[in-house]
Amino acid sequence: xxxxxxxxxxxxxEARAVTRTIRVSPQKLNLVAAMIxxxxxxxxxxDLTFSRKRIASTVxxxxxxxIANAENNHDLDVDALVVAEAYVGKSIVMKRFHARGxxxxxxxxxxxxxxxxxxxxxxETGEAA
Length: 129
Known about the structure:
By secondary structure, the protein is α+β, with helices and mostly antiparallel strands. Helix content is 33%, strand content 35%.
């Protein structure tokens, strides 16, 4: 029989995409996520395309996935989508050691992070079009 279907956590006019275990620190990833927060998706894609940050290509892939989810799974209008939320979470931190002088070692931390992007269909632009 199984469990009953879980209720949808997002509103009916929202879709999201999650990318987990990205090899970048959450602080650096949040700089790129803040760059697209609140923008229309076409403007956000253009910003990510021409950004000089290394991680911008991964953020762009996640945004494109959220747009595809909105279009295919939730039947939302792509032209009316806005990046409602873009937030970053901490993941694992790999600890490594680096050899230093006089037989000592220093610790190197290699952090990972998670990225969640929520796109929302804006009703005002959808009706005006």
